Amino acid sequence: MTGPVTPLIELSGVTVHRGGVRVLDVSSLAVAAGETLGLVGPNGSGKTSLLLTLATLLGTTTGTISFRGAPVATRRDRLAYRRRCAFVFQEPLLFSGSVADNVASGLRMRGMGRAEIARRVDETLHRLRIDHLRGRAAQKLSGGEAQRTSLARAFATAPDLIFLDEPFSSLDANARESLVADLAGTLRETGATAVIITHDAQEALALTDRIAVMERGRIVADGPADDMFNNPVSEFMASFAGMETVLVGRVASTRGGAAVVDVSGHAIETAVAAEHGSAVALCIRPENVSLSVGPARAGARSSVRNSFPARVVDVYRKGVFFKVRLDCGFPLVSHVTADSLERLRLAPGRQVAASFKATAVHVIRK
Amino acid sequence: MGIFLDGIWQAFYLLVTLDPEVLRITLLSLQISGSATLISMLLGISSGAAVALAEFPGKRVVISLINTGMGLPPVVVGLFVTMFLWRNGPFGFLEILYTPVAMVIAQAVIAVPIVTGITIAAMQNLPPNLRLQILSLGATRIQMVWILMKEARLPLLAAVMAGFGGVISEVGASIMVGGNIKGFTRVLTTATVMETGKGNFELAIALGIILLLLAFLITGVLTIIQQREKRR
User: Fold this and answer.
1) Which fold has domain A9-235?
2) Nearest chain A residue to B147, by CA
3) DSSP secondary structure code for residue A92 in this structure
4) Measured between beta carbons, which residues in chain B are less than 8 angstroms from residue A91?
5) Which residues in chain A are closer than 8 Å to B137, comparing Cβ atoms?
6) Residue A342 near chain B (CB below 8 Å)
7) Any idea where the domains of chain A sit in the sequence?
8) Backbone dihedral region of A274: left (phi > 0), alpha (psi from -120 to 50 degrees) or beta?
9) Domain boundaries in chain B?
């Protein structure tokens, strides 16, 4: 990012208290024009509070919000600012009336002329591919149709900035997929800046340029989406990025410059250096864990491979793969194909050997 | 049994022939209770919406007081309104005791808490994020309140109907502050009390039937509203 460019929106020193508890504490956050920022984090980490704060829908205890470099301070500022923004909640929250009425609602609030409203409503309905629903009663739509209408209502006012709070989490997979694609297209075409809360890695990959990870009301990591997925800096982000195994341990020794980590009495080799005795989290993608039958070569001389005897805890289907949960004295997750499942006769209680390369272990220093 | 059959027969005769006395009493009832309902609608919906939407200390206490007010005994209201309007009471100079105006006031006092209480419940029943959604679309405060009321319009209608039902059927306050003066402050309920006392059952039954029809109409509309709400 170029330095002197004023961000579209900027928070500084914002804290929010609810019932005497601090629910949000963000010292600074800036979103550049055209950027899509993803907010991820465990439940109760303050994602929704941050989003509502950005939209000036939540009273802050301290701090300022600036839009295009100017503070949003007075009630008049807030109204003007909100008229440049839009917010889509998890539930569609449609008004009674037709789909077209709903899409027109923001425009009517702005006192726009009838012809202009009609033109914008047409355009937005078309963009979100719900022209055919125009006259339908909003309360009688399916979940996907209703959320499309909610998105259309948000985009009808041509916002500079759109906030989305898990907009697709209550939809089925099909409706979700097509809606994510349409949202991505709409954001691209309109050039709108967006901040989106998501619990879904696919969604985050499809939509965001940048990801901020929240924990206990704070932003604990913030960076380009690709980096966050490839080199997660927090345990939450690691599991969000699909590294289903996250193990916490201590660096016990070093071998050839790489740390060997003690995890509940088991030595796991890594390919990175870390200070002796320091606490680390190890993250392993399930597709990098391979299973075999026969004796495990525990403590094998081969320095690139970790191998442990493991007991199958359970097996269930996950898309085209089967997810196998293992107990090696520490929990481990592996993804196997239907073919391997059959060949290794994997079933709960079965003894196997689980192995993964030292380079497959992602280390987070704590 | 003759007393019932005769009474009912006579009552239908009075209703079908549009007996001028019955007609006058009915119209006056509708006028007085209608005015009181209109007042309670204006005061009750606005104050109910204000209480429901505002955050202030003691909000729960206020709401529980209003809910208590929904069950104000009409005779107690009649007593206090009479005292206020008594010749040497604080508002005695208005000289409106034993007039329809006094009855409208007393009935409004009864209906306002009913309308307010149901309005609060209706507004609080809306999805909690709806208000934020409306504000996020760029609504002014007035636009926000207007849209919320539109979304709650059926329960708000129910609130007004309940208020009307409460006052059209009450007798205690009306008789105390109105005095049941023939052709001036005599309404369905006060007339029914008096005619029953005098043993004029046919007229009392005729008036009772009208009251029943009104009650039926109100509960009918309320039921339709409730059913429609459920379907959403």
Assistant:
1) Rossmann fold (3.40.50)
2) A95
3) -
4) 127, 129
5) 82, 86-87, 105-106, 109, 153-154, 157
6) no
7) 9-235, 243-365
8) beta
9) 2-231
CB atoms A52 and B151 under 8 Å = no
Residue in the block written with tokens 């409730």 = B226
Note the helical H segments in chain A: 47-54, 75-82, 99-109, 114-127, 143-155, 173-190, 201-207, 225-230, 235-240, 338-343
The CATH code that applies to domain B2-231 is 1.10.3720.10
ipTM, two decimals, is 0.82
What residue type is assigned to position A164 of the chain? L
Query: How is domain A243-365 classified at the architecture level of CATH?
Result: Beta Barrel (2.40)
Average pLDDT of adjacent 10-residue blocks, chain A of 366 residues: 74 92 94 95 94 94 94 94 96 95 97 96 95 94 94 97 94 89 93 94 90 94 89 86 89 88 92 89 91 65 74 89 92 92 91 92 88
Q: Which residues from B are below 8 Å from A83, CB to CB? A: 138
Contacts of A93 in chain B (CB under 8 A): 127, 129-130, 133
Look at residues B145, B143, B139 and name the one whose alpha carbon lies nearest to residue B119: B145
How do residues B82-97 score in pLDDT, each as one tens digit? 999 999 999 999 999 9
How many residue contacts between A and B have a Cβ separation below 8 Å?
Answer: 50
Residue A83 at interface with chain B, using a CB cutoff of 8 Å:
yes
